[in-house]
């Protein structure tokens, strides 16, 4: 019971941290200029993917019981956001729509490519194909909405993918288990294999 409660507390902490980072990113990416342009459908979909893809990635890790993976994802996301916003604040590159000077690198792109890269590195390429498609769409939406140019998006993707190299390991499901029990002079050796 104590182990379960500790696991639940760490799951809640990781989830709260990830959602705080995601909603902070949405708030920071909002246009602060006097004349706000109309937000197109493509940009709105990209903004939804910014929240949905990392949330689905983290949620799936918890659903399948991969708590170490969830923490790896969270640590990688923290690094991704720190590097992204450190560069944004130090470089001050103006956006193509001239709304502010936070263009380099693309925070949306770094976040969604971190999620896609995590799925790829942790669970395999097959599972990451839809995530890469969503991440690519989000990157394209940032260029289409004139928030970033190709260099901003490529740098964001590199940061997001790169953070997985530091924290993410391959998921090892336990397929085989060897058991031993004894009692009253009886000994039993068991072998289980999960398909």
List the helices and strands and how they pair.
Layout: H1 2-29, H2 41-63, H3 67-91, H4 107-123, H5 125-144, H6 150-167, E1 176-183, E2 186-193
Helix pairs in contact: 1-2, 1-3, 2-3, 2-4, 2-5, 3-4, 3-6, 4-5, 4-6
Task: Give the name of the CATH architecture.
Answer: Up-down Bundle
Q: What Rg do the Cα atoms give?
A: 21 Å
Low-confidence stretches: 1-5
* Helical fraction: 55-70%
Q: Figure out the total of helices.
A: 6
Strands of the widest sheet, in order across it, are 1-2
Total number of domains: 1
What is the class in the CATH system? Mainly Alpha
Which structural class fits the helix and strand makeup?
mainly alpha
Largest sheet: 2 strands, antiparallel
Topology pattern, helix = H, strand = E: HHHHHHEE
| Annotation, overall tally of beta strands | 2
Distance between the termini: 29 Å
| Portion in beta strands | 5-15%
CATH topology: Vanadium-containing Chloroperoxidase, domain 1
- On the 0 to 100 scale, the average pLDDT is 82
Identify the overall geometry: elongated
Description:
With 195 residues, the chain is mainly alpha-helical. It has one domain (2-27, 38-193): Vanadium-containing Chloroperoxidase, domain 1. Helices cover 67% and strands 8% of the residues. It is built from six helices and two strands; from the N terminus they run H-H-H-H-H-H-E-E. It has helices at residues 2-29, 41-63, 67-91, 107-123, 125-144, 150-167, and strands at residues 176-183, 186-193. The chain has a two-stranded antiparallel sheet with strand order 1-2. Strand 1 and strand 2 (186-193) form a beta hairpin. Helix 1 packs parallel to helix 3 and helix 2 packs antiparallel against helix 5. The two termini are 29 Å apart. The relative contact order is 0.14. Mean pLDDT is 82; it is low at 1-5.
């Amino acid at each position: 019971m104590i182990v379960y409660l500790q696991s639940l507390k760490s799951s809640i902490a990781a989830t709260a941290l990830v959602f705080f980072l995601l909603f902070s990113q949405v708030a920071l990416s909002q246009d602060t200029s006097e004349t706000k342009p109309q937000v197109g459908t493509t940009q709105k979909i990209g903004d939804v993917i910014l929240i949905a893809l990392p949330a689905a990635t983290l949620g799936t890790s918890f659903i399948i019981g991969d708590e170490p993976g969830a923490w790896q994802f969270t640590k990688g996301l923290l690094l991704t956001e720190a590097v992204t916003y450190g560069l944004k604040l130090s470089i001050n590159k103006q956006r193509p729509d001239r709304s502010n000077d936070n263009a380099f690198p693309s925070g949306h792109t770094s976040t969604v490519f971190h999620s896609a890269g995590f799925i790829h590195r942790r669970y395999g390429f097959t599972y990451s194909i839809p995530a890469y498609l969503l991440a690519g769409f989000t990157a394209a939406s940032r260029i289409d909405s004139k928030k970033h140019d190709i260099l901003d998006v490529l740098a964001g993707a590199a940061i997001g993918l790169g953070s997985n190299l530091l924290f993410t390991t391959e998921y090892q499901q336990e397929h085989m288990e060897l058991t031993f029990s004894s009692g009253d002079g009886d000994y039993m050796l068991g072998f289980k294999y999960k398909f």
